[in-house]
Automatic annotation (TrEMBL):
EC number: 2.6.1.16
Occurrences of domain Glutamine amidotransferase type-2 (ranges): 2-218
Catalytic activity as recorded in UniProt: D-fructose 6-phosphate + L-glutamine = D-glucosamine 6-phosphate + L-glutamate
Name of the molecule in the record: Glutamine--fructose-6-phosphate aminotransferase [isomerizing]
Family annotation (CDD domains): GFAT, SIS_GlmS_GlmD_1, SIS_GlmS_GlmD_2
This protein's record includes keyword Lipid metabolism: no
Pfam families: GATase_6, SIS
Amino acid sequence: MCGIVGIVGKENATDILVQGLEKLEYRGYDSAGIFVTGTDKKDYLVKSLGRIADLQAQLSPEVQGTVGIGHTRWATHGKPSERNAHPHTSGNDQFILVHNGVIENFEEIKQDFLRGEQLTGETDTEIAVHLIAYFSKETANTKEAFKKALSVIKGSYAFALIDKNEPETIYVAKNKSPLLIGLGEDFNVICSDAMAMLTQTNHFVEINDGEMVTVKADKIDIEDEKGNVVYRESYEAQLDLSDIEKGTYPYYMLKEIDDQPTVMRRIIQEYTNQTGETMIDPNVIKEITASDRIYIVACGTSYNAGWIGKTMIESLAGIPVEVHLSSEFGYNMPLLSEKPFFIFLSQSGETADSRQVLVQINELGLPSLTLTNVPGSTLSREAKYTLLLHAGPEIAVASTKAYTAQIAVLAVLAKAIGDKKNRSASLAFDIAHELSVIASVMETIIDEKMEISQLVEEYLAVTRNAFYIGRGVDYYVSMEASLKLKEISYIQAEGFAAGELKHGTIALIEEGTPVFGVITDKKTAAHTRGNLKEVESRGAHNFVISIAALSKETDQIILPDVHPLLTALVSIVPTQLIAYFATLQRGYDVDKPRNLAKSVTVE
Ligand code: F6R
């Protein structure tokens, strides 16, 4: 979603802003813009619909300065257009603002404060910059005017503001949306994500909700809501530039699919010891073991991983698990058990839907754990405990290695709880060994990607729709496989419980409809094969992904056998490749699907 960058105090501000915006492209956006100025008070505002490359094409050589802000916009209020792109300017042309988030009361603000004001676009952000200008008539102090505007604004935001009369300062404030300050020598930067400014610094300072930060070249001043000065240590980002480069890969998604065996081995290293025993904070294990029910709360791919987590935790740890969509749970909370424990799954750690649930859980004083790929992310800071995924930055919009990392970390967690509870089923199982088998099997599948590419051509090159079907864990994998396929190839794909098709959805099967069956579970294999026969009789073009022990010679993809509780970690890999190749063959951008954002920071 929207991304923000800013810099104070460097000669080539324009280049740094543009490079920063390129690093934020992965978040998803539809327009972009920059504002640059300097002590000579010349200033430039350039905006463009489309990609950063389109913005660059509009930047003439004189667009230079030492101070600036930049923005990638993912449209919420008002369609994608140059007019609606950020930065936005106040009516008196004094203030320039970029914004990530949603201002919920923008209509009321318009009515109460800005009647008769000439607005040029349809965005909520434009309202905010006009409101700051409105309050600047009451106080000549920009920070005070900004604070007054913030006291009126309701919603989520990360704001960066420049007053053209003080071109050596950026004012920054946030509520619920991410924003960091990066520290340099004789310059400072701001960014939605440390990745955007890694070429400049790897020392960052977090900003808390409600704080106001004044960023100058030689210092930053943080004030809390009451105006008290806040001192906060910086931290060193555990990232280096090679983590976020594509290298020789044509797309990040392919690199990230290929990364998965390495990620599995990293998880073994981080969470198990030399003798294969689990190593997870004993306080987390103790608190989960004492709970009577686990609630997994997540969105999208993370939600799909949650279902696999449920099967593993229930089998190994013997604690009932419910899996919920964050966007539903927060506003329709089920009756909770007496001793609930909450697990939030979020690759980014910034998803607004999940965060609103965590806020409520914290208000209820209930214990929580976040599994996230991003240390220091909002969900990580606000949950009682965090387990990191150690997947390395995931840049492609379609999540792949974060999904398998979530499942692997949940597997270790389930095993650790089972061990703590002395459950015999879990004691007989060496998680480090089984995950290392998984890593090798993933490599085998990835090595055969060109065969998968050929199959995809036969099945998906022209189809309008497709189905993934399975039962139990194979159904949960089908949910994720179909999400992957639809989000990047735009094929209308559904993941379905194989036994449920005949209760209605089978009506959609026509001559040639691709149906992918996932078969890795002994107790349901025969039934899923039966369901595949039913669709085949009605014209479906079947494609079977099976585990060797349950395979038939005619199956299209046969996977080596792995531990029965971990099959999702391998059966998902061909489906990721299927989505990748289908998208390439249909001529779409694999890494940047339309309408989607990587980090979804609005509800
Ligand atoms: C799909 C995808 C999304 C995310 C969802 C939640 O490939 O990546 O469905 O899984 O937006 O994001 P996180 O995990 O960051 O909370």
